Amino acid sequence: MQPIGEHAVVLGASMAGLAAARVLADTYEQVTVLERDALPAAAVHRKGVPQSRHAHGLLAGGRVALEELFPGLTDELVAHGALSGDLQAQTRWHNQGLRLCPGPSDLQGIAVSRPLLEGCARERVRALPNVQVVDRCDAAGLVPASDGRRVCGVRVLRRADGSAEEVLEADLVVDATGRGSRSPVWLEELGYPRPVEDEVRIGVAYASRVYRRDPDHLGGDRAVVVAGTLDRPRGGAMLAMEGDRWMVTLNGYLGQRPPADPDGFLTFAAGLPAPDIFEVLSDAEPLGDVLPARYPASVRRRYERLGWFPDGYLVTGDAVCAFNPVYGQGMSVAALEALALRECLRASPTGLARRFFAKAAGIVDIPWGIAVGADLRFPGIQGPRTAKVRLVNAYLARFHVAAATDPVLGRAFLRVVNLMDRPEGLLRPTIARRVLRGNLWRAATRPRRPRPTSRAQQKEAA
Ligand SMILES: Cc1cc2nc3c(=O)[nH]c(=O)nc-3n(C[C@H](O)[C@H](O)[C@H](O)COP(=O)(O)OP(=O)(O)OC[C@H]3O[C@@H](n4cnc5c(N)ncnc54)[C@H](O)[C@@H]3O)c2cc1C
User: Fold this and answer.
1) Residue 288 near residue 45, CB atoms below 8 Å
2) Which of 10, 36, 327, 417 to mutate to test the pocket of ligand 1 (most atoms within 8 A of CB)?
3) Measured in angstroms, how far is the CA atom of residue 386 from the centroid of ligand 1?
4) How many angstroms is it from 108 CA to the middle of ligand 1?
5) pLDDT tens digit string along 97-115?
6) Pocket test for ligand 1, best of 138, 298, 318, 333 (most atoms within 8 A of CB)
7) What's the pLDDT score for residue 447?
8) Residue 443: exposed, middle, or buried by beta-carbon count in 10 A (0-12, 13-18, 19+)?
């Protein structure tokens, strides 16, 4: 493809920044990725991505998108020790305390640590001949063109003794600096409005610990995901990783907080709505300390609603929407947004921001709806509990009852939460009929309590 500009600059070299850089390399002569951290050569944790020490699942939709951006990435990760597996047959999903019926699906998962995934993507980007990754360099603000209608560069400060602020000129600047993005402030400094923020306060507390994984654990299954229930608002994810390890992250809503001491961590696991994680942890070898953290709110910045936005500037990834991590959506959305950016760039360079933000909003709508809708099951969480949200949650409560014994429903559900299908698919008549049938069957086969016969028994039952 003919280049549409000379220089694009990406701020942030995490998953969203790397995915964007991959796409921009096809349409700009030169791409520079700026990252404030010192980037490690190997796949290890780094300061700017503290979340890498907690469970990081890649949804099937995200894996497919990353594979499109970096062909062969799944095989490369497997060659480094990651485990590939069927997301329905080899992962145990528990909703409402019921295990989703296992069965073969066409959903391929990859069990990999976050540092290895990011490290491999980073090496792919570094290997592109027209991309330069500059680490230990802070983006400090935007440089406006003289007419104030476009961004024509970025102010940067290198993390080196005696360095002073420099200007890096660019035809396009992409902010991928994550949840703490300064874009709202930078835009205001240039005289543009800030985006409206939708915020849902979830007050999630979580804690993580790595354990040695025995290949026989869970009969060889790759992962367990336990969602909190109304009476027990605590959940957890236990994900296999390269190096025969499990990453275990426990979470709690509404004041439920997994303790950071080893005994408390184990006791908290014992109180999850499903026993699988506790059963493994009770005799697995821990490989480090318990690391606690908090996630106060899901935040969505509505850039697509701004009527006035400078040319030459975009925002992507967590800087646009930071989801409740319990649903494991962020990396997948970042990859899908990069594909949307590629589509926009291929169509035309003009009106890029308006077209990209509209497409990104369409991508974010679905996972945001899934995450916020599921969080609003908990009466203690404040948010827009619309009639649609209440209806969908009531339907899903029945759906999970039927999906515990019906693998077709299990697959339909997983395709939606893995961003492969739209949620409306769960309401199709063929699916709704199976939900009804499953609930009728369960009601008919549920063991009943014997009816009290004697007067004393009747009194006790009353
Ligand atoms: C606890 C937790 C668990 C999660 N679990 C999952 C999961 O299971 N699955 C999933 O898909 N997602 C998960 N996520 C979300 C996922 O981590 C992010 O969505 C993903 O990393 C993409 O984010 P990003 O690249 O937009 O931003 P980030 O990952 O936050 O990266 C921002 C980058 O920008 C750099 N930076 C920041 N400011 C500047 C600056 N001024 N100048 C230069 N560089 C700068 C930072 O150092 C960093 O490298 C989780 C998040 C959390 C907090």
Assistant:
1) no
2) 36
3) 30
4) 23
5) 999 999 999 999 999 999 9
6) 318
7) 75
8) exposed
> What separation in Å is there between the alpha carbon of 165 and the centre of ligand 1?
25
178 CA to middle of ligand 1, Å? 5
Q: What is the C-alpha radius of gyration for the chain, rounded to an integer number of angstroms?
A: 24
Which atom of ligand 1 has the smallest separation from the CA of 319? 26
Cβ neighbours around 166 below 10 Å, total: 13
Q: How far is CA 409 from CA 100, 169, 328, 391, 460, in A?
A: 9, 52, 21, 18, 40
Classify 201 as helix, strand or coil: strand
Which residue puts its alpha carbon closest to atom 12 of ligand 1? 330
Compute CA distances 126 → 39, 92, 119, whole Å: 11, 36, 10
- Express each pLDDT in 329-366 by its tens digit: 999 999 999 999 999 999 988 899 999 999 999 999 99
End-to-end CA distance of the chain: 77
- Please name which of 193, 181, 58 lies closest in space to residue 114, comparing C-alpha atoms: 58
How far does residue 49's CA lie from ligand 1's centre (Å)? 6
- Please give the structure tokens belonging to residue 351: 């009106």
pLDDT at residue number 459: 52
How far is the C-alpha of 318 from the C-alpha of 334, rounded, in Å?
A: 8
